[in-house]
């Protein structure tokens, strides 16, 4: 999906919500456990219920890899089920020496039909460039993450600047804003104005609203650019809004609430 197509979807649907499919088999409603593939069945119903309120889905691969082969199959089926109009993110946080990163890129962009993958920048340019060789796909580089551990490295000084600032400035040179985004955690709202000044044109994938407590209002006010430039992910707040048979209806309600709030900011 090109940047222009993504922006059109956001403007048309009046939402920049990404629904996070962090599907944990121990948390899905019990009545689904007798289905042939409970994880896929849960995702299918969540996607059907929320697709009008979001522009994409983020599959956190850990939840699928944890189940071995059936988990990987559920991920493949889910990725294939997501409508073509929706942005499909593999949240895999990959990145390794170049020839290994090339294999990760093939796995998520060729063998699986994802539009985007999250990548850790710690190993530097040669670990990220193999993803960026796919010009029609998106590489989403971790910038400033939402967790408390962001203080351990990302918010430490690296010379004159903070490490995350160096990551943003440096990684922004590796690809264009048509193919490279940054992850910026919603819990880091105090840094958002600074982040936008460093990378004025980029899209950000913003996790950390909902269960982690970040403010949609604050990040939207501080970081929206002329192309919107924001994709805001919520996982647990939507998919586990109810643990009962009404889970899909409740997920729809929460996704719709996010959409309505986003429509106000657009
Ligand atoms: O790359 C991510 O998506 C990510 C980066 C980050 O800094 N913080 C973060 O929470 N995430 C992911 O975003 C999702 C957040 O889930 P909820 O807190 O349930 O909405 C999880 O899949 C996390 O792995």
Number of domains: 1
Q: In terms of structural class, how would the helical and strand content be classed?
A: alpha/beta
Bound molecules: orotidine-5'-monophosphate
Shape: globular
Strand composition percent:
15-25%
Count of helical stretches: 11
Q: What integer value in Å does the Rg equal?
A: 18 Å
Pathway: Pyrimidine metabolism; UMP biosynthesis via de novo pathway; UMP from orotate: step 2/2
Organism: Niastella soli
Protein name: Orotidine-5'-phosphate decarboxylase
Domain Orotidine 5'-phosphate decarboxylase: 16-251
General description of the model:
The chain is α/β, with parallel strands linked by helices. The protein has a single domain (3-265), classed as Aldolase class I (TIM Barrel). The protein has 11 helices and 10 strands. The longest helix has 19 residues, at 247-265. Orotidine-5'-monophosphate (OMP) binds at residues 20, 22, 60, 91, 118, 145-147, 183, 185, 207-208, 210-212, 233-237. Its EC number is 4.1.1.23. Belongs to the OMP decarboxylase family. Type 2 subfamily. InterPro entries: Aldolase_TIM, OMPdecase_type-2, OMPdeCOase_dom, RibuloseP-bd_barrel. It comes from Niastella soli.
């Amino acid at each position: 999906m090109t940047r222009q197509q993504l922006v059109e979807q956001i403007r048309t649907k009046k939402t920049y919500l990404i629904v996070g499919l962090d599907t944990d088999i121990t948390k899905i409603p019990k009545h689904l456990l007798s289905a042939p593939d409970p994880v896929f069945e849960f995702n299918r119903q969540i996607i059907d219920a929320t697709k009008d309120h979001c522009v994409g889905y983020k599959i956190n691969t850990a939840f699928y890899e944890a189940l071995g082969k059936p988990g990987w199959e559920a991920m493949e089926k889910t990725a294939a089920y997501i409508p073509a109009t929706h942005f499909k993110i593999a949240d895999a946080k990959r990145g390794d020496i170049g020839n290994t990163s090339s294999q990760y890129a093939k796995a998520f962009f060729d063998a699986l039909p994802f539009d985007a993958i999250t990548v850790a920048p710690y190993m530097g340019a040669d670990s990220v460039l193999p993803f960026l060789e796919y010009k029609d796909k998106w590489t989403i580089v971790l910038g400033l993450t939402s967790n408390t551990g962001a203080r351990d490295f990302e918010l430490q000084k690296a010379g004159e600047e903070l490490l995350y600032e160096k990551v943003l400035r440096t990684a922004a040179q590796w690809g264009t804003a048509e193919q490279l985004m940054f992850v910026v955690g919603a819990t880091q709202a105090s840094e958002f104005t600074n982040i936008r000044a460093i990378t004025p044109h980029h899209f950000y994938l913003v996790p950390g609203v909902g269960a982690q407590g970040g403010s949609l209002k604050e990040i939207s006010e501080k970081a929206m650019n002329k192309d919107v430039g924001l994709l805001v992910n919520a996982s647990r707040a939507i998919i586990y809004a109810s643990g009962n048979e009404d889970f899909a209806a409740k997920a729809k309600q929460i996704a719709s609430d996010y959409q309505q709030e986003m429509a106000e900011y657009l």
